[in-house]
Design brief:
- This protein is of the alpha/beta class.
- The protein folds into 2 domains: 221 residues, Rossmann fold (3-Layer(aba) Sandwich), CATH 3.40.50.1100; 91 residues, Rossmann fold (3-Layer(aba) Sandwich).
- The protein is built from 13 helices and 10 strands.
- Helix 8 links the parallel strand 7 and strand 8.
- The relative contact order is 0.17.
């Protein structure tokens, strides 16, 4: 926790994380491709983290976190609390190391994510959403035992691993003007923005949130950590936060310029657009940056949208492609 009392993650930590991730295997350098839509003044690029082995950027933070622990820390196993994508990344890495991995998921967790966690050997424990969120806030859960807890967001090693996305973006598009990331807990944007602050500080950093679960927008407006008054869950489970984690507030407010809040209709339209124009399957949070970039009030320039993941239930994807909004 003390390691997050900073304005950015050190660049040397992120470079080290990148080396660890490439050398340990699993993580791939994902492509950066143009969105096949012409918009005057805007060139939109897609950072395809949905093409990681677990179909999410979360494999980066999870991989760096577990490889930063010593053998003694891993002897009793590890556990985490996750909406699904970080759990997959952690279980994937734990399986490779022969480490037991227990995952606490909310009872709303999608079937595709549950099946993937189990495929990678994760031991799944479903709990009510409010109890799950409490674990996210307190980093504790009774009855787990001596396993080492790895937080999916509030961990400097996790954020450093995620920051490797920023290094790759600069390798492929040095002239990037704007980067937009989904905001679930802040682990992705704070890692990427730390890279930009060190290497290309003129790059503007924005996030997007589901309008029914937009704690960062509320907190930035209030100038302090604020909970969402009328929070609601949706199929966009990668952006479902009720409040900004206090441990992440200093990082987020110093690195993020602003947040675009999106309707479920806008997010669904972006999911559909990615399939139709680029043959890309993205989950709600993964398509949300595209929805933000397409808005008329989003600034022009070379824009990179981080397509954070592609783990979406087939029936929900079909519903979206038919023009409807999943329940």
């Amino acid at each position: 926790m003390e390691r997050l009392n900073v304005d950015c993650i050190p660049l040397e930590d992120i470079r080290k994380a990148q080396r660890v991730l490439y050398e340990s295997g699993g993580v791939v350098k994902t492509p950066l491709v143009p969105l096949n839509v012409d918009i005057p003044g805007k060139k939109i690029f897609l950072k395809l983290e949905n093409l990681q082995p677990v179909h999410s950027f979360k494999i980066r933070g999870a991989g760096n976190a577990i490889h930063s622990l010593n053998k003694e820390d891993l002897e009793d196993g590890i556990f985490t609390s996750s909406a699904g994508n970080f759990a997959q990344g952690l279980a994937f890495n734990a399986q490779k190391l022969g480490v037991e991995c227990t995952v606490l998921v909310p009872d709303s967790c999608s079937e595709s994510k549950l099946n993937a966690i189990k495929y990678y050997g994760g031991i799944v424990k479903k709990i009510p959403w409010k109890d799950w969120w409490k674990v996210m806030e307190t980093h504790q859960f009774e009855g787990i035992g001596p396993q080492r807890f790895i937080h999916p967001v509030c961990d400097a090693d996790v954020i450093a691993g995620n920051g490797s996305i920023g290094l790759e973006i600069l390798e492929d598009l040095p002239e990037v003007d704007i980067i937009v990331s989904p905001y679930g807990g802040g682990g992705c944007v704070c890692g990427v923005a730390s890279v930009m602050k060190a290497l290309k500080p003129q790059t503007r950093m924005f996030v997007c949130e589901d309008e029914g679960a937009a704690p960062l927008a509320a907190s930035l407006a209030a100038g302090e950590v604020t909970s969402v008054a009328n929070h609601r869950s949706s199929f966009v489970d990668g952006m479902c936060g009720k409040s900004v984690f206090p441990a992440m507030w200093r990082l987020a407010r110093s690195l993020v310029e602003g947040s675009y809040t999106l309707s479920l209709r806008e997010i669904c339209d972006a999911v559909k657009l990615l399939v139709e124009k680029n043959c890309i399957v993205a989950e709600g949070a993964g398509a949300a940056p595209v929805a933000a970039a397409l808005r008329e009030d989003f600034p022009p320039g070379n824009i990179v949208c981080i397509v954070s993941g592609g783990n979406i239930d087939t029936e929900k994807l079909v519903t979206i492609l038919q023009g409807d909004i999943p329940a």
